[in-house]
């Protein structure tokens, strides 16, 4: 009998959003506006080179990212989505039994990837839907190797402000790596959610995680990256599965970076929808925490699964976290209107 890892036998697999043909999909925080125009054009030109391996070092993509953030290329590592990069960072610091602290609920891959890396997840309950940084700092021990801060937090959409984040990072011992996951950065108000790269760019124990899956509309191609100290980035790169970022993904990401104005324009549309839908839900009597992301959180507790079931019965897929709440991605205006109709029906 092959000896399998006990920690994996108990581990719950990642549960992706459901796919139902023809449904309105408001379940996975994707961009509803489709590929950026420059990306579609570039991908059409590329098919000739696909029988060859991609550039494993992703040199041109790294250069484009480094230029975008005003850093040297040795501070950037890419992977197949920020999920892969997240796993790579964990593999870089986790020794067997190493503790990894994060707020809970937060991005569901954190405990899975921690366990896969041989670490032990330490979940610190949210306070009023917000990551409780003092409690997270108090949960750090000699065995802690890494702390995740998801800003804004998935699935509750709530931010951590600059003062609190700065105090938290400064309080932590230098041997603990702080990963600030900014998957929803483009949707956040800079006056509310600090840009961690600007805030901690030179700190040796902070790594900032970003993705092309949300505002850059490339969830299907899988590109993410992190920015941090060269000593850490060099080790993170070693943990990548060789060639995991495909040639198409690299080219699409480079083309997407050139479409910054369109990304900003689309994010503004989503932010407008966020304000409209939040307002309407509150008028209907829903408790909706202030969102800094491209989704809303409805803390419906025991009603969460039934609410999602009601939406599904009417062709709308939202994401239920049974017993806790429902996460609703902001889609196109007409999709959001369809959702609001069902939210009103449920309430009636
Ligand atoms: N971080 C957060 C907070 C997320 O919500 C997600 C996607 N749901 C990711 C990382 C990973 O995204 P991807 O792997 O597509 O880059």
TrEMBL record:
InterPro entries: Aminotrans_II_pyridoxalP_BS, Aminotransferase_I/II_large, ArAT, HisP_aminotrans, HistidinolP_aminotransfase, PyrdxlP-dep_Trfase, PyrdxlP-dep_Trfase_major, PyrdxlP-dep_Trfase_small. It is an enzyme of class 2 (transferase). Signal peptide: none annotated. Its EC number is 2.6.1.57. The modification N6-(pyridoxal phosphate)lysine is found at residue 214. GO terms for molecular function: aromatic-amino-acid transaminase activity; histidinol-phosphate transaminase activity; pyridoxal phosphate binding. The keyword Acetylation does not apply. Keywords: Aminotransferase, Pyridoxal phosphate, Transferase. GO terms for biological process: L-histidine biosynthetic process. It comes from the Bacteria. It catalyses: an aromatic L-alpha-amino acid + 2-oxoglutarate = an aromatic oxo-acid + L-glutamate. Its cofactor is pyridoxal 5'-phosphate. Residues 24-337 form the Aminotransferase class I/classII large domain. The keyword DNA damage does not apply. Homodimer. Belongs to the class-II pyridoxal-phosphate-dependent aminotransferase family. Aminotransferase that catalyzes the conversion of aromatic amino acids and 2-oxoglutarate into corresponding aromatic oxo acids and L-glutamate. This is Aromatic amino acid aminotransferase. It comes from Nonomuraea solani. The lineage of its organism: Bacteria, Bacillati, Actinomycetota, Actinomycetes, Streptosporangiales.
């Amino acid at each position: 009998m092959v000896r399998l890892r006990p920690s994996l036998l108990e581990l719950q697999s990642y549960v992706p959003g459901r796919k139902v043909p023809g449904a309105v999909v408001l379940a996975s925080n994707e961009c509803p506006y489709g590929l950026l125009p420059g990306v579609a054009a570039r991908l059409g030109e590329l098919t000739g080179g696909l029988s060859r391996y991609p550039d494993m070092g992703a040199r041109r993509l790294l250069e484009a990212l480094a230029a975008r953030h005003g850093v040297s290329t040795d501070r950037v590592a890419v992977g197949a989505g920020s999920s892969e990069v997240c796993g790579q960072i964990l593999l870089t610091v986790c020794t067997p039994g190493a503790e990894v602290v994060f707020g809970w609920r937060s991005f569901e891959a954190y405990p899975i990837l921690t366990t896969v890396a041989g670490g032990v997840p330490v979940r610190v309950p949210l306070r009023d839907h917000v990551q409780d940084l003092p409690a997270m700092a108090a949960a750090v021990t000699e065995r802690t190797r890494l702390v995740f801060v998801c800003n804004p937090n998935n699935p509750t959409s709530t931010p951590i402000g600059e003062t609190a984040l700065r105090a938290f990072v400064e309080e932590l011992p230098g041997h603990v790596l702080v990963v600030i996951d900014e998957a929803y950065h483009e949707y956040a108000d800079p006056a509310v959610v600090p840009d961690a790269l600007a805030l901690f760019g030179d700190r040796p124990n902070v790594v900032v995680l970003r993705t092309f899956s949300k505002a850059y509309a490339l969830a299907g191609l899988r590109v993410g990256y992190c920015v941090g100290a060269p000593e850490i980035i060099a080790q993170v790169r070693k943990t990548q599965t060789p060639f995991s970022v495909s040639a198409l993904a690299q080219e699409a990401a480079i083309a997407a970076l050139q479409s910054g104005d369109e990304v900003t324009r689309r994010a503004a549309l989503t932010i407008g929808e966020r304000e409209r839908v939040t307002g309407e839900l509150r008028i209907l009597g829903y408790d909706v925490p202030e969102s800094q992301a491209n989704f809303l959180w409805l803390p419906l507790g025991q009603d969460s699964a039934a609410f999602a079931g009601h939406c599904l019965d009417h062709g709308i897929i939202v994401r239920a976290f049974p017993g806790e709440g429902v996460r609703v991605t902001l889609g196109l205006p007409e999709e959001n209107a369809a959702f609001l109709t069902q939210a009103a029906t449920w309430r009636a």
